[in-house]
């Protein structure tokens, strides 16, 4: 029997359904919206293979990236929007309201 390592690797990757850290598209991802001078809503939607804890971790990672990209050292979760549910398509969906604190400098 012939071995097909490349095909096996691709099939494994597809079956694992890797959730990657990227802007929202049809496979999920993060999204943020500025709702005040130092306030953002940050959300993450996973795919069908994403565990809820992974979606929450990705939400926190994006919140940290948003704070850093706007020149802030810290952020605080002011409201947990982690609906602790799955969206209508059965994908984990989490979100937070983030207040940015202490400009770098």
What does it look like?
The chain is α+β, with helices and mostly antiparallel strands. About 30% of the residues lie in helices and about 35% in strands. It contains two helices and four strands. A hairpin with a 2-residue loop joins strand 1 (about 30-35) and strand 2. The radius of gyration is 17 Å and the shape is elongated.
Topology of helices and strands:
Layout lengths: L4 H12 L12 E8 L2 E7 L6 H18 L2 E9 L12 E11 L2
Antiparallel strand pairs: 1-2, 2-4, 3-4
Helical percentage: 25-40%
Count the domains.
Answer: 1
- What is the helix tally? 2
β-strand number? 4
Structural class: alpha+beta
- Looking at the structure, what is the overall shape? elongated
Provide the residue-averaged pLDDT: 76
Helices and strands, in order, run as HEEHEE
**What proportion strand?**
25-35%
Kindly, what is the distance between the CA atoms of the first and last residues, rounded to a whole number of angstroms?
A: 63 Å
Largest sheet: 4 strands, antiparallel
Strand order of the largest sheet: 1-2-4-3
Low-pLDDT parts are none
Assembly state (oligomeric): single chain
| Rg of Cα set | 17 Å
State the gist of this model.
The protein has 105 residues and is α+β, with helices and mostly antiparallel strands. The chain has helices spanning 5-16, 52-69; strands at 29-36, 39-45, 72-80, 93-103.
Question: What would the keywords be for this entry?
Answer:
105 residues; alpha+beta; 4-stranded antiparallel β-sheet; 2 helices; 4 strands; elongated
């Amino acid at each position: 029997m012939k071995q097909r390592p490349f095909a096996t690797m691709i099939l494994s990757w597809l079956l694992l359904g890797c959730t990657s850290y990227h802007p929202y598209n049809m496979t999920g991802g993060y999204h943020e919206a500025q709702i005040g001078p130092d306030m953002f809503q940050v959300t993450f939607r996973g795919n069908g293979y994403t565990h809820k804890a992974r979606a929450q971790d990705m939400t926190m990672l994006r919140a940290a990236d948003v704070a850093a990209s706007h020149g802030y050292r810290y952020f605080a979760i002011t409201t947990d929007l982690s609906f602790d549910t799955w969206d209508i398509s059965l994908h984990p969906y989490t979100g937070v309201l983030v207040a940015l604190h202490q400009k770098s400098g």
